[in-house]
Amino acid sequence: MLTGSKNALKGVGFFLGGFLLSSIGFHDAILVMAIALGLVWLASLYLLREDLDKSKNKPKFSKMFSKSREINILSAARLFLFGARDVWFVIAVPVYLSSQFDWDHWRVGSFLALWVIGYRL
């Protein structure tokens, strides 16, 4: 259920990205998203101010790693694997769809949104 809701949210992001690119262009879309993120950040500072810095246990950075070298290597491999997958879906696949099929931003964003939402159903 968690993966499905996460994928649905990613799909909404692809729809929104395709819409913004089609309607206002790249630079303005980046500006709109930066402003939205800034507003979310300000809202979180305001709404969560009582809960900030209330952690009783503040582990050191070195405690975030496992004592097992193998587990740390596996964790690093997963980090790079998921990063590469995200770069593939966010950059390479949209560029391919746009260049090979002559799809506009809206069509590419819609296709990827439907794919990301639907492939886990």
Automatic annotation (TrEMBL):
Chain ranges passing through the membrane: 7-24, 30-48
Entry annotated with the keyword Transmembrane: yes
InterPro entries: MFS_ArsJ, MFS_trans_sf
Segments forming a coiled coil: none
Keywords annotated in UniProt: Membrane, Transmembrane, Transmembrane helix
SUPFAM superfamilies xrefs: MFS general substrate transporter
Keyword check for Cell membrane: no
Protein name, as recorded: MFS transporter
Organism: Marinomonas pontica
Lineage summary: Bacteria, Pseudomonadati, Pseudomonadota, Gammaproteobacteria, Oceanospirillales
